[in-house]
Amino acid sequence: MIPFATYSLPQSETRQGLLLVGADGVIGSALATCLRQAGTPFFATSRRVQQPTAQLLPLDLQADPASWSLPAGLGTAYLCAAVCRLDQCRREPEHSYQINVERMVLLAERLAAEGCFIVFLSTNRVFDGRQPHVAADAPYSPTSEYGRQKASAEQRLLAACPQTAIVRLSKVLPANDALLQGWKNDLLQGRAIQPFHDVVMAPVALSSVVSLLRLIGERRQGGIWQITALQDISYAEAARQICSHLGCDPALVQARSYRDAGLHEEIYLQHSTLEVSRLQRDLGLTLPSAQAVIEMTVNP
Ligand SMILES: NC(=O)c1ccc[n+]([C@@H]2O[C@H](COP(=O)([O-])OP(=O)(O)OC[C@H]3O[C@@H](n4cnc5c(N)ncnc54)[C@H](OP(=O)(O)O)[C@@H]3O)[C@@H](O)[C@H]2O)c1
Questions:
Q1: In 3D, which of 98, 267, 80 has the Cα closest to residue 167?
Q2: Number of domains observed in the structure of the chain
Q3: Does 259 reside within a domain?
Q4: What is the rounded distance in angstroms from the CA atom of residue 176 to the CA atom of residue 211?
Q5: Residue 3 has pLDDT above 50, yes or no
Q6: How far is CA 256 from CA 2, 181, 237, 259, 271, in A?
Q7: Model confidence over 186-243: pLDDT tens digits?
Q8: Other C-beta atoms within 10 Å of 251: how many?
Q9: Which residues pair with 21 in a beta bridge?
């Protein structure tokens, strides 16, 4: 078994062109950094640039698809662009549906028609979270507009491009995650924090997600992949873990409900874990516990 952090990709990944759509995002930028460090050539897209350079291509999914200019001969495309915020999808359902479903599927179809292998990033929120460790083939049951859009995109992608890899992620934590780092700083300064006791996460490290994406792209293994921690942890539990690790006063962690913070009901899921046995079965990968991911995030 290979822990995620120590996996290094064979050079064969370079045999065909790679495309990274959404290179400015949290996951897209981490994947770009990893590919760059490995010396793997790739094309990236951004909606922030106007003129193409050798590596960076303009691509705004909101723009007329006739204006999209994509390289030929691509081997694998990672589709990392999306409107990801729950509240934005709820407030702007038509706009976000256009990006997350219509245009994303159109882009994937164009690429797949040229023989490109598609890796599409999705979410545990295609399920309602009533059960833990949801099987990959369980019926869709989203409870938010964001989850409905991702479920819809998945279904359409799998129908149009059956070889596609769908990668369902739970909460992805970068090293030095802003929220957790903010808690750490507050606790060290003796300031109280107010994490939610009724919102859970099954966190995975950003580095693990990047390793998995590269592996799936390299092996061109399609179908549904799920990556979450094996257990959920509430935000309040995570905060208590950090507080205890720092040796700070436990009274500084003043847990509250997301309702008291005025957040919309859509944020609530009883569970956020998915069934992840394919990772070990097909790739020999093991996942760190939720607590270990929290630890790595706060003390990278
Ligand atoms: N991070 C997580 O915890 C998590 C969990 C589950 C699933 N996912 C999925 O993983 C994928 C990547 O997530 P992320 O955390 O990296 O998201 P992110 O940081 O919000 O990045 C999304 C990227 O999409 C780009 N984008 C938005 N609208 C666009 C448009 N009209 N045309 C072109 N690009 C556009 C954004 O561009 P700008 O930078 O210019 O705004 C941004 O770079 C998403 O599909 C998300 O649903 C993430």
A1: 80
A2: 1
A3: no
A4: 18
A5: no
A6: 38, 19, 12, 8, 18
A7: 999 999 999 999 999 999 999 999 999 999 999 999 999 999 999 999 999 999 999 9
A8: 8
A9: 45, 79
Q: What's the domain range around 101?
A: 2-172+204-229+273-288
Give the CA count within 13 Å in the CB-facing half-sphere of 141: 13
DSSP letters spanning 141-190:
---SHHHHHHHHHHHHHHHH-TTPEEEEE--EE-TT-HHHHHHHHHHHTT
DSSP 3-state assignment of 244? helix
At 212, which CATH number? 3.40.50.720
What is the whole-number distance in angstroms between the Cα of residue 100 and the centre of ligand 1? Answer: 10
SS3 135: coil
Tokens of 88: 């934005």
**Burial per residue of 157-172, b for 16 or more beta-carbon CB atoms within 10 angstroms, e otherwise:** bbeebeebbbbbbbbb
Cα(87) to ligand 1 centroid in Å equals: 14
Q: For ligand 1, atom 11, name the residue with the nearest CA.
A: 80
Closest of 168, 115, 119 to residue 276, by C-alpha? 168
Ligand 1 neighbours, Cβ below 6 Å, are 22, 24-28, 47-48, 59-62, 80-84, 99, 121, 123, 169, 171-172
Q: Does the residue 157 lie in any domain?
A: yes
Task: Decide: 220 and 159 in contact? Cβ < 8 Å.
Answer: no
pLDDT at 41: 93
The answer, yes or no, to whether residue 9 has pLDDT greater than 80, is no
Indicate the Cα dihedral angle 289, 269, 132, 120, nearest 10°. -80
pTM over 0.70: yes
